Amino acid sequence: MAQAVSQIVRLEAAPRNFERIETAACLLDEASPEETLGWAFDEFGERVTIATGFGAEGVALIDMAVRINPRADVFFLDTSFLFPETYELRRRLEDRYRIEIRAFETDITPEQQELRFGAKLWSTDPDLCCRLRKLEPLKEALRGRAAWITAIRRDQTLERSTARVVEWDHQWQLVKINPLVCWTRQDAWDYIAKHDVPYNPLHDKGYPSIGCTHCTQPVRDGEHERSGRWKGSAKRECGLHGSSRPTTFVLQSEMLLPRSAGRKSKPDSRE
Predict the structure, then answer these.
(1) Annotated catalytic sites, by residue?
(2) CA-CA distance, 225 to 138, in Å (whole number)?
(3) What pLDDT score does 156 carry?
(4) What is the CATH number of the domain that holds 99?
């Protein structure tokens, strides 16, 4: 199916090609993740990259992608606050699949961040912390790319519930491909078990969703899988996966104002 779709639809990553993107989305709507990945690699070649946060879906996607394209480009956002188990998982995946999972990070060290914005920014202004340590690095990771591939699922959050298999990413201005968008959490774990995929041991300790150390807690039985992220607040998204509607990206130069100048109002980081 992937080959057939590639022959029918040729995308140019520009807003004027919304109709072509919609055609691809419709054709791939019921395709398997493997078919979608095959189409993405055929269509975009080296202009497509895979983002991973090393979650259950993320490691399943890496395994699937490397089986199709051993030279698949994979990256992650190193916030400097990830769990030791997450960094170790990166090493295990690189060894297992003989790939490099490239790291992108902000040029603001944790110490500089504290000096500029005060202690524990992840607690006082988690939206700003996410923009500094995730959104700005993602902007660099996607520079020069025509498309990116993510491991999001529709049933993870309300904000992701309308995601398509293929869509135009208004926030980052390129094609976004979500091969696992129709999966459930159980689908991810079934794939991991079937293919013996390495995964984060924190998943076995009550962490179904794993982000930064300061903003991730284990969840109790019956709680939503993302309820351990930014515990005690309504925040459930870091802002990487924007709305399907056009949105405005806040540049770093707009965020890093001196305290005396005051901060501009920030957009909701929920996706």
Answers:
(1) 238
(2) 24
(3) 79
(4) 3.40.50.620
